[in-house]
Structure formats: C-alpha cells, structure tokens
Amino acid sequence: MPELIPIIKKDTIDRKVDEIARRISNDYKDSELILVGILKGAFVFMSDLMRRLTIPVQIDFICASSYGSGTSTSGNIKLTKELGIDIHNKRVLIVEDIIDTGLTLAYLIEYLRSFGPKSIAVCTMLDKRERRRTDIKIDYSCFVVEEGFLVGYGLDYAENYRNLPEIYHLKL
Ligand code: IMP
Ligand code: MG
Q1: Whose CA is nearest to atom 15 of ligand 1?
Q2: Which residues pair with 155 in a beta bridge?
Q3: N or C: fewer beta carbons within 10 Å in the chain?
Q4: CATH number of the domain at 10-148, out of 2.30.42.10, 3.40.50.2020, 3.40.1190.20, 3.40.50.300?
Q5: Domain residue spans in the chain?
Q6: Which string of b and e fits 67-101 if b means at least 16 CB within 10 Å?
Q7: 67 sits in which H/E element
C-alpha cells in the first residue's frame, strides 16, 4: 500500500495563498490580468488564488500532459486543450501546481508567447528543484520542496488523490 506522509497543512497553504494573492494584486493593480491555469493539477490552487485577488481578472485553462501514469516527466508534452481567450497585448500569469523538470512550463511559455501577450509571468504552488532541467524564472511560488513525489490539493498520482485538501509525500 502506498504511504501518505503529510507535509503541508491546510492552514499553512491558506496563509501562503493569502500572501501570494496580496503580492499579485499589488503587482498588477494597474493592468488587465489573465490567469491561465494548467489543467488538471492547478485548478484547486487557481480557484483559491483567484478568489483572494482584489483586482479584476479574466481566467482560462490549457491542458498539457506528459506523465502518463508514472512519476517522472516524459519530456514529450502534448497539448490536449488549447487556449480559448485572446491574450494578445494582455498580461498573462500562468498558474501551475508544481514545477519539476520545468519542461512542461518551458513548452507552454513558448506556446503562449506565440499569441503575442504583453507579458508572461509564472505562479506555482510548488517549486520542486531536485530534477530541474530548464532555466525558467518563477515569479511567484508558494513553497519550495527539494524532493519526493507529492499529491493532494490538485496533485495526482495516476489521477488519484487530487481531492485531498492538504499536500502529502507519496511513498510507493
Ligand atoms: P515538469 O515538466 O517535469 O516540470 O512536470 C510538471 C508537471 O508534472 C506538473 O504540472 C505536474 O502535473 C506533474 N508533476 C511533477 N512533479 C509532481 C509531483 O510530485 N506530484 C504530482 N505531479 C507532479
Ligand atoms: Mg500539472
């Protein structure tokens, strides 16, 4: 049986999302902001984050997959849901659940850049550094974790555990 070890508690998540939302609201107070969430993992974080923003925002989602049912990225990224709104000349904030190798994000930044936005920044719930293979700038990150495979708060292992309200280390 896989073992679930709690690593980030609900109230710690809540306090951090409050803080990041305040920073974003302040940084974008004079501009039109579009949040682009990466499905499926980011939807829980994005729904908490957007409801704490005190500025007007528009939202959209794109869906990328690369993992299949394993625990490491294949590097072979497939876009399974395209962007649905116009981001030309707009300021875009990508919302991710976790950045691991960074390959998914690097691919998605290029994809979004092709629509000619005014700016693109990145906000992630978790920044996992152990396997990073790209040099990407992360503008907002809630938690830095060094290693391990994490589930809960939107994060899955083979599509399970996304509904858990806290973040766990999954020991297989
Ligand atoms: P990357 O391309 O290696 O950065 O992988 C990014 C994507 O892989 C994330 O958006 C997640 O969907 C998934 N992922 C990476 N690490 C984990 C993890 O520890 N738990 C669950 N999903 C993960
Ligand atoms: Mg993801």
Answers
A1: 100
A2: 152
A3: N
A4: 3.40.50.2020
A5: 10-148
A6: beeeeebeeebeeeeebeeebeebbbbbbbbbbbb
A7: none
Ligand 1 mean position, distance from CA 98 (Å): 5
Atom of ligand 1 nearest to the CA of 99: 4
Question: Which residues participate in catalysis according to the annotation?
Answer: 100
Q: In terms of Cα–Cα distance, which of 85, 96, 95, 115 is closest to 35? A: 95
Q: Which of 97, 134, 167 to mutate to test the pocket of ligand 1 (most atoms within 8 A of CB)?
A: 97
Substitution site in 125, 155, 156, 170 for ligand 1 pocket (most atoms within 8 Å of beta carbon) = 155
How would you write the pLDDT of the chain (172 residues) with one tens digit per residue? 899 999 999 999 999 999 999 999 999 998 889 999 999 999 999 999 999 999 999 999 999 877 555 666 666 788 999 999 999 999 999 999 999 999 999 999 999 999 999 999 999 999 999 888 899 999 999 999 988 999 999 999 999 999 999 999 999 8
